[in-house]
Design goal:
By secondary structure, the chain is α/β, with parallel strands linked by helices. 44% of the residues lie in helices and 15% in strands. The strands form 3 sheets. It has a 7-stranded parallel β-sheet with strand order 3-4-2-5-10-1-11. Strands 14-15-13-16-17-12-18 form a 7-stranded parallel β-sheet.
């Protein structure tokens, strides 16, 4: 069976290469091989951001005697094509063809096709025929799958799209300009917030809807001649349960409109049966069964496998003090700065940058200014040009986007848990939808999002077996604190400050 061949070949390859040991290579490779042989879907949580786990799905994909599609971000594709695939293919001795592209070569192709998430999702969600049904498909980076789907299904109207519309409908240009002015005035009346966005209220939606209705009815069959962005935005809006929102650039005096689904389970549930899929991610769900993740993505019954970080090589020191003020109290900022100042002083002799994660946008700016006044040019706010003594102050999104390319920190300081803020109108819109459905919006949306973000953020610290300082006292005093600690495991907990941690 293919499982035996994959196990034998990969074990010999790892021994020959002297690879740093990832203890779950062979288990994962056998599961992927079994999924290919039986055509059964599987979901694998690797518990690791280290690229070497990818050998575990490459080996069965190269040994399997039929076609395989691998869906992976472009950055991952480049690594696989330059490094992993050539040496693994040489060792295995297979001449299986490898191609990249946005469509399946032809019906006779029996190799490995590597494509991007955008290409594959566009085909599956829009009923195209670029990829045939029934071909086993591996999806690497399933942590971001929901975001990829939302991006694929999102309609967007930029400021220049209004100019394009007026050029396409010159006889209606004055009226279109008037609608734009009315929408601008209404949107700019929304109170400013740190996220520079707002939900589009019913009156504003009605103004926009009237615009589309007039555009469609003014000239028979002229709707199909609308600019592409307008056509697609209207197409998105016709789907049920859509969130309409805008980003606001007050200094420039313009806005961008967005339309995206409130949930993706409905559309995704229709595509999983089209081919056997193996989803591979770092930290998809706290539970091995991934019940919340599967519910969010419309996945039915699949074979689930969850690996935990290795206690010997990936244990972190977790500093979790008790007695700090809660994040929503006036005394929190002063206590936070004092804790951070002490941590930075104690870690002064440490080699490697310190990363300080602050999700609250105003707090990030305030804390960054205070620390810069004391520690000078060492403090960098969301910059990537770091040296060993740098102190990087950044938000969660910045860290997620850049952590792979930055040196792993020996000390990661977390101000508060990355629970999506209800002050963000887009988050508030999502929560309102969960409430309307009578669903537990905290357990099904906010908490899973926070735990996934947290697990991914600390992964580089596991590589150096460094210190994570979590300064959110809710972990000690809220019922969900146990789930947070479970997501951080394995760790050695400490509740005092000691310079010896950083030696």
């Amino acid at each position: 069976m293919i499982e035996v061949e994959v196990h034998s070949s990969l074990r010999a390859f790892l021994r020959e290469q002297g690879q740093p040991s990832w203890p779950h290579h062979l288990t994962m490779a056998r599961l992927v091989a079994r999924a290919l042989r039986l055509g059964r879907p599987a979901l694998i949580q690797t518990g690791s951001t280290q690229a070497r786990y990818r050998l575990s799905y490459l080996a069965p994909a190269l040994i399997w005697d039929g076609p395989v599609i691998l869906v992976a971000p472009v950055s991952v594709q480049q690594w696989l094509l330059r490094v992993e695939i050539p040496r693994l293919q040489q060792w295995i001795g297979t001449d299986k063809p490898i191609q990249t592209g946005d469509k399946f070569p032809d019906e006779r192709f029996d190799g490995l096709l590597i494509t991007s998430p955008a290409s594959w999702l566009a085909d599956r969600l829009e009923d195209k025929t670029c990829f045939p049904n029934g071909v086993p498909t591996l999806i690497d980076g399933a942590d971001d799958l929901e975001g990829w789907v939302r991006e694929q299904l999102q309609g967007c109207l930029q400021p220049w799209d209004w100019d394009e519309l007026m050029l396409a409908r010159p006889h209606q240009a004055d009226w279109i300009r008037d609608v734009r002015v009315r929408l601008t005035k209404a949107i700019f009346q929304h109170p400013p917030n740190p996220y520079n966005c707002c939900l589009i209220d019913v009156p504003e939606q009605e103004t926009l809807r009237q615009l589309f209705e007039v555009l469609q009815s003014s000239v028979k069959d002229q709707y199909r001649y609308l600019p592409t962005s307008w056509r697609y935005f209207w197409h998105c809006w016709q789907r049920s349960d859509q969130l309409i929102w805008a980003t606001i650039a007050r200094s420039q005096g313009h806005f961008c409109l967005y339309c995206e689904p409130l949930e993706v389970a409905g559309v995704l549930s229709q595509i999983w049966s089209q081919q056997p899929v193996v989803l591979v991610g770092e930290a998809l769900d706290l539970e091995a069964s991934a019940s919340v993740y599967r519910q969010q993505l419309g996945l039915g019954e699949v074979t689930c496998l969850k690996f935990s970080p290795d206690r010997q090589s990936e244990l972190i020191q977790l500093y979790l003090p008790d007695g700090l003020p809660m994040p929503n109290t006036p005394r929190f900022q002063d206590a936070l700065i004092q804790q951070v100042r002490t941590l930075l002083i104690l870690s002064a002799s440490m080699k490697g940058p310190v990363v300080f994660l602050v999700g609250d946008i105003p707090l990030k700016a305030q804390v960054g200014a205070v620390l810069a006044a004391e520690f000078g040019s060492r403090v960098q706010v969301e910059k990537t040009d770091l040296n060993e003594s740098s102190i990087l102050v950044c938000g969660w999104e910045f860290w997620r986007s850049h952590q792979t390319f930055l040196p792993p920190p020996q000390l990661l300081i977390i101000a508060t848990l990355p629970i999506p803020s209800l002050e963000n109108p887009v988050v508030a819109g999502q929560v309102a939808y969960y409430k309307k459905q009578r669903l537990d919006w905290f357990r099904l949306y906010l908490l899973p999002a926070a735990l996934r973000e947290l697990q991914r953020a600390i992964a580089p610290v596991r590589e150096s077996q460094g210190v994570v300082a979590l300064l959110d006292n809710r972990v000690n005093h809220r019922s969900y604190g146990r789930q947070v600690l479970s997501a951080l495991s394995p760790f050695a907990r400490i509740n005092y400050l000691d310079a010896s941690w950083f030696d």
